[in-house]
Write a structure and sequence with these properties.
This protein is of the alpha+beta class. The protein contains 27 helices and 32 strands. The mean pLDDT is about 95. Bound molecules: ligand BES and zinc ion.
Length: about 900
């Protein structure tokens, strides 16, 4: 067993390897329990390494079968091998070939890292450090090699054999039932991008011709029998490939692009060169089985992994501290793609919701870390919302600061200069500094300093002179290891709005302070902007488009917020004003204050104006802030039950006040057309479901009747599941019947049953623990499948705030027990589940005590994986 506490890895300790591996020739004889891997590595000393250092290769649970140096078996006294590594001491030539045979057992691989079996097929997952579970290697991202992979298997067992690159040869092995395939990837790559697949898969394929005329066969491979759900993924792939050509001038660079969907996968998907491997949740869709959100998710993930071909694969990371170099940038790129394919404002709102619920939550608690961390114990725990989502926000701010043309020039320079290398954040930023002529040294703090900056704004209007002084201040609360914070470079897009909605002129005394697009850059602790020539008191619209990942605290009255809600030309801030008003109402309710009608009236007007011409936007506005959003606003002594009840009370009041409008909307938005997943149709369904949900809050009996009818009549999953979700919140016979009907209809579809598990796990009722225990015994449930675990336990811990945070502590105990049960089997998934405790410190004392006790119980358990031990340890720090 590995040590409980893994050693700390530090960015400052980076040094190049002592050896380089130019080529790798793998020969893999696939077998369910004893796969033989023969690796021939051509090695040479790295001129940048230490001249006399031994060769140290990493391994993980490997069994060594044979080892030879330049064709001659290596004497046992010259090397040291154990499951964790291989060290060759002897005097080594300047360059040599090392041939190593290892044996691995894919069927016993429950961690789903390295080579494993899923649905009877063979597949791999190597990022971040899984390649060492296949063969001994310099398993780090700055070692780039050209790979040739030969696969061999029983033809019946694995008719399809795939690896990275292009197929160069395949055929039968004479005199038997076996066959083989040889793949060659001409692009040097790190080991984490290696992949192979073997098995029985159904394929949809098409030719794609790149902008410069290269013909590429693009193919989606799915488990047998699921072919009719692969079309949308293929369509999304084609659109992604075209978009990267037009938006970034990036073409695909191999003869084939393969995507394989498997049912057991720790993450969403993986960008292996030329052979992306996907959790089938992000591939399979049909109108009967997938919601509009599922379709959008597929589009996002297909695009994301495809975009990595340039941002991640052609240019990779020097070390794992630079993870945001590929992930933050690629999230930015997939967000831009979806914005172009769908509605930009609606996509922005959705992305900011995710950023706030995930990243702000992470950043305000014990797991807070910089976008580029300086230390880690377990790298798999750093694929976080901070690295991904805040990492993407930094790239977006950069574009905002230097402008789109300079940004594009900087990207072009980055591709040109660093193609084929393992790069750093400094490399990346240097391209934009050069392209824009701007000094980005201060801006680079965004990668180093953790925590969410708070920007406070206050304004003063002097009617006599028509002057408005806007003072902006910033501060960042302390985070683990960073008690003292520096001011950041915060781009604040702003406008001034008159009470009847007109945009007011923005003339400042200091010409340079606000540019013609309304951008002000706050890069000191505080600054005051003086606007002149204002005929009336303006309402400031700040942080338009969410121009920086900060918390904004502006002292606006309800009436001023209403002005922005009605009239702001920036749709993001229009939405934000509505959310702020709703949050105020809910918090007032919690204090027992009487709540005025402002927001309800505003919403009514809003619906009249937008429900027909922009239903997707209207749906976002109609959706109340989540319980987690409100908890974050309050920030301390959180009682999730009090928040839940106040939010419900506001929802009831709004639902009742708007009932006639909501009912009319729900009826009018019913479509007679056949289902199509396009953004416009999805927007109408989204508003229809949101209207139903709010109506059911205000008029439960009527809501229940309408939901039951929608559930029965729906011809698509979005409306069927939307109705079920409304019913799930109304205890009684109708709910149980609908849940049973749904389970029976989809009994053979695990991905749909995941929705059913997740929905029930989120029911905010005392009896939920019994229901969860029962669901865990359901024949479709398995602790071996990450999607099932996430659906049942992940949803409970992350979405059922009142029950996870029960004051008797039983919610915490359930998750702690599950983490401990899961850890020996799949430590990555166990560690992720444990992050549900990341906000425990802001709870009120009773719950805080119970959460801490559960965390301490996990931390004190013997034989924890490094993954769980790391999260438990940092959560308690
Ligand atoms: N490179 C990651 C997959 C990965 C994550 C490998 C963690 C190893 C550890 C991939 O590109 C990725 O980021 N996938 C995301 C989805 C994406 C749309 C943000 C995922 O798997 O959640
Ligand atoms: Zn990624």
């Amino acid at each position: 067993m590995r040590t409980e506490t893994a050693p700390i890895v530090r960015l400052e300790d980076y040094r190049p390897t002592d050896f380089l591996i130019d080529t790798v020739a793998l020969d893999v004889i696939l077998d369910p329990t004893a796969t033989m891997v023969r690796a021939e590595l051509s090695l040479r000393r790295n001129p940048d390494g230490r001249a006399d250092a031994p060769l140290v290769l990493q391994g993980d649970e490997l069994t060594l079968h044979s080892i030879a140096l330049d064709g001659t078996p290596l004497a046992t006294e010259l090397y040291l091998a154990d499951p964790q590594g291989l060290t060759i001491r002897g005097p080594l030539p300047a360059s040599f070939n090392l041939t190593v045979e290892t044996v691995v057992n894919p069927s016993a691989n429950t961690k789903l890292m390295g080579l494993y079996r899923s649905g009877g097929n063979y597949c791999t997952q190597c990022e971040a450090d899984g390649f060492r579970r296949i063969t001994y290697f310099l398993d780090r991202p700055d070692v780039l090699s050209v790979y040739t992979t030969r696969l061999e298997a029983e033809r019946d067992d694995a008719p399809l054999l795939l690896a990275n690159g292009n197929l160069v040869e395949s055929g039968d092995i004479p005199g038997g039932s076996r066959h083989y395939a040889v793949w060659h990837d001409p692009h040097p790559k790190p080991a984490y991008l290696f992949a192979l697949v073997g098995g029985t898969l159904d394929t949809v394929a098409e030719d794609f011709v790149t902008a410069s005329g290269r013909k590429v066969e693009i193919a989606i491979h799915v488990e047998a029998g699921k072919r009719d759900r692969a079309a949308y993924a293929l369509d999304a792939l084609k659109r992604s490939m075209r978009w990267d050509e037009t938006a970034f001038g990036r073409e695909y660079d191999l003869d084939v692009f393969n995507v394989v969907a498997v049912s057991d996968f720790n993450m969403g998907a993986m960008e292996n060169k030329g052979l992306n491997i996907f959790n089938d949740k992000y591939v399979l869709a049909s109108s009967d089985t997938a919601t509009d959100a599922d379709y959008a998710g597929i589009e996002t993930v297909i695009a994301h992994e495809y975009f990595h071909n340039w941002t991640g694969n052609r240019i990779t990371c020097r070390d794992w501290f630079q993870l945001c170099l590929k992930e933050g940038l690629t999230v930015f790129r997939d967000q831009e793609f979806s914005s172009d394919e769908r509605s930009r404002p609606v996509k922005r709102i959705a992305d900011v919701r995710t950023l706030r619920t995930q990243q702000f939550a992470e950043d305000s608690g014990p797991l807070s870390h910089p976008v580029r961390p300086r230390t880690y114990r377990e790298i798999n725990n750093f694929y976080t919302a901070t690295v991904y989502e805040k990492g993407a926000e930094i790239v977006r701010m950069l574009r905002g600061l230097i402008g789109a043309p300079a940004f594009r020039r900087g990207m072009d320079l980055y591709f040109e200069r660093f193609d084929g290398t393992a790069a750093t954040i400094e490399d990346f930023l240097s391209c934009f500094a050069e392209a824009s002529g701007q000094d980005l040294a201060h801006f680079a703090q965004w990668y180093e300093q953790a925590g969410t900056p708070v920007v406070t704004a206050s304004g003063e209007y002097e009617a006599a002179s028509g002057t408005y002084r806007l003072t902006l201040r910033q501060s960042t609360p302390p985070t683990p290891g960073q008690p003292i914070k520096k001011p950041m470079v915060i781009p604040i897009a702003l406008g001034l709005v008159g009470v009847s909605g007109e945009a007011l002129p923005m003339v400042t005394t200091n010409e340079a302070s606000v540019d013609e697009d309304g951008l002000f850059v706050l890069d000191t602790d505080a600054a005051t902007i003086t606007f002149t020539g204002l005929p009336e008191q303006p309402v400031p619209s700040l942080l338009r488009g969410f121009s920086a990942p900060v918390r904004l605290e502006a002292t606006l009255s309800d009436d001023e917020l209403l002005v922005l809600f009605r009239h702001d030309s920036d749709p993001f801030n229009q939405w934000q004003a509505g959310q702020t008003l709703a949050t105020r109402h809910i918090r007032a309710m919690m204090r027992g204050e009487r709540v005025g009608a402002t927001f309800g009236e505003g919403l009514g007007h809003f619906l009249d104006r937008y429900a027909t011409n922009d239903p997707a936007f209207a749906a976002q506005v109609l959706a109340l802030p989540s319980e987690a959003d409100i908890a974050r606003e309050i920030g301390r002594d959180i009682n999730p039950t009090a928040i839940h009840e106040a939010r419900l009370a506001v929802k009831r009041a709004l639902g009742a006040e708007l009932a006639p409008r909501l009912k009319a909307l729900h009826a009018a938005l019913r479509s007679a057309d056949a289902y199509s997943p396009d953004a416009a149709s999805a927007g109408r369904r989204s508003l229809r479901n949101t209207a139903l949900d709010l109506l059911a809050g205000g008029a439960p009996a009527e809501g229940e009747t309408l939901a039951a009818a929608q559930f029965d009549q729906a011809d698509n999953m979005t409306e069927r599941f939307g109705a079920l979700a409304v019913l799930a919140l109304i205890p009684g016979q109708a709910r149980e019947e609908a849940l049973a009907a749904f389970a029976s209809r989809y009994r053979d579809n695990p991905l749909v049953l995941d929705k059913w598990f997740a929905l029930q796990a989120g029911i905010p009722e005392e009896a939920i623990l019994d229901r969860i225990a029962e669901l865990a015994r359901h024949p479709a449930f398995s602790m071996g499948n990450p999607n099932r675990v996430r659906s049942l336990y992940g949803s409970f811990a992350m979405t059922n705030a009142t029950q996870f945070n029960r004051d008797d502590g039983r919610g915490y105990d359930l998750i702690a027990d599950t983490v401990l049960a899961l850890d020996p089997r799949n430590p990555q998934i166990a560690a992720r589940l444990l992050t549900a405790f990341r906000t425990w410190r802001i709870l009120e004392p009773v719950r805080r005590g119970k959460a801490e006790a559960a965390l301490r119980r996990v931390a004190a358990t013997q034989g924890l994986s490094p993954d769980v031990s790391d999260i438990a340890g940092r959560s308690l720090d």
